[in-house]
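[Q] Does anyone have a clean structure-token version of this?
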Amino acid sequence: MKDHMGLEENVLTNSIRRVDVHFDPLKVYSTIKELSGGKSFLLESVEGGARTARYSFIGFDPIFEFRSKGKNVEVNGESYKVENPYTELETIFKRFRCGRIEILPFSGGMVGFLSYDIVRFFEEIPDLLEDDLKFPDAHFIIPANILCFDHITRDTVLVSYAKEAEKIEKIVEKGVEIGNFSLSSIKSNMGKEEFESSVIKAKEYIEDGDIFQTVLSRRLTGKYEGDLLHSYKILREINPSPYMFYLDFGETKVAGSSPEMLVRLRDEQLMLRPLAGTRPRGVDAEEDEKLKLNMLLDAKERAEHIMLVDLGRNDLGRVADYGSVKVNDLCSVEKYSHVQHIVSNITAHLKKDKSAFDALRATFPAGTVSGAPKIRAMEIIEELEKNKRGPYAGAVGYFDFSGNMDFAITIRTMFALGNKAHFQAGAGIVAESDPEREFYETKHKLGSLISSVEADK
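[A] Here you go.
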């Protein structure tokens, strides 16, 4: 049965087989990215800051592509207008049917990103800021081929809708090294004085009782030459995180190492993990423990975290069975290579009449990148920031054919369009915030992102 776009219900038949490739996901991806000649992605993970997650995934040779900007939608190169592109994405996704491969957490589906600005199709948020980036609000592909690397068994399997295992083995055999990367002409969209003025105004809103907290961000933009994958390689080395991703969608590229889940759905079980409260790692175990206790005993840090936990509970409650929302491991500490964070687990059971798309809509954007109450905080962001956010503070992840999904918050991320690379970071603003300190928090985050490149000259 076809719709107005001529898209039929699409029953996909997949196959799975072991393939003989070098067990180095990044190196294999570098080769596939260059030689397959199309859009592709690499998804990796480090759990708990120290342990490599079991699987890495490489997807390529898309059989489907969806892009949207405002009400304009492009599906497989054909453009049309809709009232709500997110609803259109879900409608199209539901037309695909594919068997589940039980041994893998992901074996096929839509992979991509949602920009922060798609929130205007979820909530009534003013549209005031200049869109200087021109990034899609949504961009997803369905790959014909997915290489799955099992870090426990050291096996690599190919899930394919195209049955091209031998061809893929020959491509990977050739080997393509990651190219160099350089960044120049770096400029900020908001200077120190302007950012601090915005912090002062946000504090006035807090004092007037409009909000408890908001998150203000600023962006650095530079011209780049070479291979953006080189920057991802460095980022994954210096800042390994639970969500590491590289999306090469043609002109649009997104590379990140995000520590924070937006929302996950597995077999009707929902999970959120608010991450708020940070301290550096100590030089030894004793100092590490002191810094951890200092963070947990900091009344401001703890109050902010509890507020975001409450916000997460309310978000999940919109799509969860009554009474199923639970908070586990309240204010536990998770340690990464350079920092340690306060985290909590929030779980719930998805209502029978709700979908993965409903769950993402209910939780987007995360409270940790918007504020509380969320809608009023987003209205204030629209007033006080300089430009539309684009991918920053949105979501990167997948909807799989089994009904599950997993999305990270798009932070600690580089995004590129054409020859320009963008880096954005924010600071949580509360009543006690010091404007200068909040500026330097964004400067530190941005400096870490662009590594050896000086952030603000």
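[Q] Thanks! Anything notable?
[A] The two ends are 58 Å apart (CA to CA).
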